[in-house]
Amino acid sequence: MTASPPPTLALHTLGGDTMGTLWSVRLAAAREADLRGLHAGIETRLALVVRQMSTWETDSDISRYNRAEAGQWLPVPPEFAQVLAGALAIAEASEGAFDPSVGTLVGLWGFGPNSHAGVPDAEALRDARKHAGWRRIGLDRDALRVLQPGDVQLDLSAIAKGYAVDLVAAYLREAGIGSALVEVGGELAGFGRKPDGEPWRVLVEAGPEEDDHRLDARVLDLDGIAVATSGDRWHHYTRNGRRYTHTIDPRSGAPVAHAPAAVSVIASDAMHADGWATALGVLGTDAGHALALRLGLAARFLWRDDDGMQERMTDTFRAHLAA
């Protein structure tokens, strides 16, 4: 008996909204494949991240932790523990430039679900900084529990979207999809190749100033890697002529004053790419680039000066650029 030929693969696109942003998946599957079950499975994974890590949901695991009394150990799901462990590891490696305990500070500066209007005074800032400090958080991964030391407000928004990308990509692989490009709010991961044999090719996210044609477009082939971008054009406001971004420097307790226009990080998974993009953005172009070099991170920095947009990248980032 002659074996039937493999089904002809075609590109399909799925999408929706989650976490206050959009998600999309492009994948290779049989031309006539019914993808409704796959779409539902993706939505289920994204809903899991929201249910566990969204500070906008009052009954989420993170909101339950933030309301807990001092000294209480709270049970958490394994996904939550994995993301928090990743956040704490980046906090340590960045010497506190990344800190998942900045929830009170985020709200104080007018961002997030518990935001306050206006720029805080010095007394309010001093009080809010007392509630932060990643070293105060106790995580027992074996027992899946987290210690609330008292008034710590966790905020995993700088790493949870990346984890959501990883969760969806893992689900697709388990479902038998051999090639896909996953995006959640600008964080991307790709694996396999398109039906025509070409890799998933993406333009590195930046800012509108890059349209001045002074800088070359930077294109990546995503096959088993992820990329995330953090920058000052997302979530900001202006008061009395000063621009305040949503990226808080945990070391000062205030929004980053001179953040790069964009920091992009490539990693083997989107969770670490997402967290490190934020950490390096807090450190700034010089210190961030120096740390990226020391740790072997693949990072690209964009910043503005009097001559327009400038660019610097590590050799490990450059090595991933499409030929």
Describe this protein's structure:
This protein has 323 residues and is α+β, with helices and mostly antiparallel strands. The chain has three domains: 8-55 and 157-185, no CATH class; 63-154, Orthogonal Bundle (T-fold); 199-323, ApbE-like domains (T-fold), CATH 3.10.520. 32% of the residues lie in helices and 27% in strands. It has helices at residues 36-53, 61-67, 78-93, 103-108, 122-130, 157-174, 270-283, 285-295, 315-318; strands at residues 9-18, 21-30, 72-75, 138-140, 145-148, 180-184, 187-191, 200-203, 219-222, 225-231, 236-239, 242-245, 248-249, 254-255, 262-267, 298-305, 308-313. An eight-stranded antiparallel β-sheet has the order 1-2-6-7-10-15-16-17. A three-stranded antiparallel β-sheet has the order 3-5-4, covered by helices on one side. It is globular and about 65 Å long. The termini are far apart. The model is unreliable at 236-241 (pLDDT under 50).
Stated plainly, the CATH topology of the largest domain is called: T-fold
Radius of gyration: 21 Å
Strand arrangement within the widest β-sheet reads: 1-2-6-7-10-15-16-17
Provide a count of the helices.
Answer: 9
Estimate the strand proportion. Answer: 25-35%
| SSE series | EEHHEHHHEEHEEEEEEEEEEHHEEH
Amount of helix? 25-40%
Q: Nutshell version of this structure?
A:
By secondary structure, the protein is α+β, with helices and mostly antiparallel strands. The protein is built from 9 helices and 17 strands.
Write the layout of secondary structure elements.
Layout: E1 9-18, E2 21-30, H1 36-53, H2 61-67, E3 72-75, H3 78-93, H4 103-108, H5 122-130, E4 138-140, E5 145-148, H6 157-174, E6 180-184, E7 187-191, E8 200-203, E9 219-222, E10 225-231, E11 236-239, E12 242-245, E13 248-249, E14 254-255, E15 262-267, H7 270-283, H8 285-295, E16 298-305, E17 308-313, H9 315-318
Antiparallel strand pairs: 1-2, 2-6, 3-5, 4-5, 6-7, 7-10, 8-9, 10-15, 11-12, 13-14, 15-16, 16-17
